[in-house]
Structures are given as structure tokens and as C-alpha cells.
């Protein structure tokens, strides 16, 4: 997403119109999630994807038409049959794609969006993608840019802008891209306007505790998945950037003290995942006592079943109840038969993904029905 915004900003700065096609809604086994975009540049270059290849040709042609006309279009692509869907998706899913012309006159706020994304600051772009009925007030295509401390642009009225900004800030905090329905004057119960909120959130955090070989592999896969990865250990001889080159930061501190300080500073949220790889009671018990009291996306701890049973006994002694202990993924990871640090990191990452989306971890070949969940079980990683 950051690369797409950067390319948009470059073309925007050159003053030539181009098109952006954005997935705004999906059903069934859709290939890519809402918020995914494809750009069609002034020179005809195509960047990004909306379906992994199924409908890109049709979207490309529509994008060129929208660039020429300046009129945005919301198009539905689904199963290729006689039900008037424009183009077939081989996966059997359905997607709504909003195609719009982008230029400095129509989107003067793009500069501030691009600057925020480049700086890693949260920002949301709200676009009116559909109007239920004749668009007498010219609402289609209007946009509002929402930051934690302000807004720019307008959806057509001050009351609507204020109501939408409140909801958009909630989505920003959770890193979620969603579609909202509002009335013309900001009434949430009405549904005249369909508003797509594209969230560019700060990356979710992955905190890896224990400066061991498994942590190095976990840092690599965490960064690959889009997390901002921190490796923390109390032992300065092991907690060095040289040992963990793919971590975004390496911290020397007692794990429980560092996690508590980060939570008190507001740098921990419901997207944060914690991987405890120390399997040493003097480190992991105080750490887990803090972690299991926080609203985190995932808390996993490495160790044998004997270590796990001993850890639970010690944690109960700290006053943690069974509801809090039930949040602990231990022994950490899915049963993949992993042996090496790299394989173990894959099993941990797989468990984090399954936990996020409500997956079972079962082989798809043994299941029936849709292979994609429609809603995340926990707030998604954004941006």
C-alpha cells in the first residue's frame, strides 16, 4: 500500500491525470481484501492488482475510460454467468471495485496523505463510492482525509464530516479498512451514502522477547508480514543489532519492565503480538503476568509441555485468573513438525495468522466451503 501511495504522489506531482481502482467490498472467496488498489498511469502503466489477475484486463480498460471522462464508477465483478456480472473470478468470489480519476484539482489532499504514509503516521481517506438515488448534491466521489488530530476535504456537510471523522478515527486506532453507510447529514441509521474508509495505519507491532536463534528467524518473518519488530532481552551481550539485522529495533531491558513501559506510553494496541521465546521462569513469568493483562492480539510462549505446566502454576500464583490464562498460546505455534528456528518461526507465524482471521490450521484439502473468512476475528494489520 505504501508503494502505491508513493507512486500516486509522483504522478500527482507531475500534474497528469491517472486512475485508481480500489476494492471496496468482497464476498465469498475473493482473492484480495478491501483497500487493495491498482493504478493506471498517464503512460498506460499498470501498478498493483485488484484480483490477482482475474479481472485486471477489464479494470484496466474501465480505468482508461474513467481517466478520460472524469466520472467515477463502482463496478461489480463476480462469477462469470448470465447474471450480468461483467467478468468472471476463477475463485468464485465477488468484488466491488471503485474506479476514479486522480489529479491535483480533484484530490488536492493527496500530498498530505502521501506525507503521512511516508512518515508512518496514521491517516484515513474516506470516499463516497455510491449514492442511493439520484446524486442531486454531487456527493459521489467526494472525499474526507482524517488524521488523529484533524481533517481536510469534505463529504458535503459539516455534520456528515464530523460524524464520519469520529468513526474513521476508531478504524484508524484498530487499523481496519471498512465501508460505512450514512445519511446526507451524518445520520448513522440512514443509508443514502456508501463511504469507503481506506485506513493507512502505523504497522502493527511484534514484540519478540528472548535474544535467541528462534528470535532472529521470528524477526525475519515478522518483518516480512508487515510488523514493526522489536527484539528485547535483558542480556546486553546477546541483544545486539548485529545478531538481529532484520528487527526494526533491539532493546536491552528486562522484558516485563519494557512491555509495561510501552503499554503505559500508549505504544501497545489490540494489533500487537507478543512472542516469548525465553523459556526461563525469571524472564517469562513476570513478562507474561504483564502481557496477559493487556488487550493484545496474540501472546505465545515457547517451551515444553512440562515447562508450560510449571509456567501456569507460577502465573496462577501471581493472581492471574483462568480467563487471562486462556489467552496464552503455549506451547507456541502450530503443529507443523518444525525442527529448525526458521521452521519454528513459520509455525508461530501461521498460528498468529490463524488467530487473526479465525482459521483452524487444518489442511484446506480436507475442508469444504469458502477458503477465506469474511471478517477478521481480531483487528487487522494495516497499511
UniProtKB/TrEMBL annotation:
Pfam families assigned: XdhC_C, XdhC_CoxI
Location of the XdhC- CoxI domain: 11-78, 117-183
Name of the protein in its database record: XdhC/CoxI family protein
Coiled-coil zones: none
UniProt domain XdhC Rossmann: residue ranges: 206-352
Species this chain originates from: Streptomyces asiaticus subsp. ignotus
Amino acid at each position: 500500500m505504501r508503494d502505491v501511495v508513493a507512486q500516486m504522489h509522483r504522478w500527482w506531482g507531475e500534474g497528469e491525470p491517472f486512475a485508481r481502482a480500489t476494492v471496496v467490498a468482497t464476498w465469498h472467496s475473493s482473492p484480495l481484501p478491501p483497500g487493495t488498489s491498482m493504478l493506471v498511469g498517464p503512460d498506460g502503466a499498470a501498478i498493483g492488482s485488484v484480483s490477482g489477475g482475474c479481472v485486471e484486463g477489464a479494470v484496466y480498460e474501465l480505468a482508461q475510460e474513467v481517466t478520460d471522462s472524469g466520472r467515477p464508477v463502482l463496478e461489480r465483478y463476480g462469477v462469470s454467468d448470465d447474471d450480468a456480472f461483467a467478468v468472471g473470478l476463477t475463485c468464485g468470489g465477488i468484488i466491488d471495485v471503485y474506479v476514479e480519476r486522480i489529479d491535483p484539482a480533484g484530490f488536492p489532499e493527496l500530498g498530505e496523505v502521501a506525507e503521512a504514509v511516508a512518515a508512518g503516521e496514521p491517516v484515513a481517506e474516506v470516499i463516497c463510492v455510491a449514492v442511493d438515488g439520484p446524486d442531486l448534491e454531487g456527493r459521489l466521489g467526494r472525499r474526507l482525509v482524517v488524521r488523529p488530530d484533524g481533517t481536510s476535504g469534505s463529504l458535503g456537510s459539516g455534520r456528515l464530516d464530523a460524524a464520519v471523522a469520529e468513526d474513521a478515527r476508531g478504524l484508524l486506532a484498530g487499523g481496519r479498512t471498512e465501508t460505512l453507510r450514512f445519511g446526507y447529514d451524518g445520520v448513522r441509521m440512514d443509508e443514502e451514502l456508501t463511504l469507503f474508509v481506506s485506513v493507512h495505519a502505523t504497522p502493527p507491532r511484534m514484540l519478540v522477547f528472548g535474544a535467541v536463534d528462534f528470535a532472529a528467524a521470528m524477526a525475519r518473518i515478522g518483518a516480512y508480514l508487515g510488523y514493526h519488530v522489536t527484539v528485547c532481552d535483558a542480556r546486553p551481550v546477546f541483544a545486539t543489532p548485529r545478531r538481529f539485522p532484520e528487527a526494526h529495533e533491539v532493546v536491552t531491558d528486562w522484558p516485563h519492565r519494557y512491555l509495561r513501559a510501552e503499554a503505559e506510553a500508549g505504544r501497545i494496541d489490540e494489533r500487537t503480538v507478543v512472542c516469548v521465546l525465553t523459556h526461563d521462569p525469571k524472564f517469562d513469568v513476570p513478562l507474561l503476568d504483564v502481557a496477559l493483562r493487556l488487550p493484545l492480539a496474540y501472546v505465545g510462549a515457547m517451551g515444553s509441555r512440562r515447562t508450560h505446566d510449571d509456567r501456569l502454576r507460577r502465573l496462577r500464583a501471581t493472581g492471574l485468573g483462568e480467563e487471562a490464562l486462556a489467552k496464552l498460546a503455549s506451547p507456541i505455534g502450530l503443529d507443523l513438525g518444525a525442527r529448525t528456528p526458521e521452521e519454528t518461526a513459520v509455525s508461530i507465524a501461521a498460528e498468529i495468522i490463524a488467530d487473526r482471521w479465525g482459521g483452524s490450521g487444518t489442511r484446506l484439502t480436507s475442508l469444504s466451503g469458502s477458503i477465506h473468512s469474511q471478517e477478521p476475528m481480531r483487528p487487522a494489520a494495516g497499511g
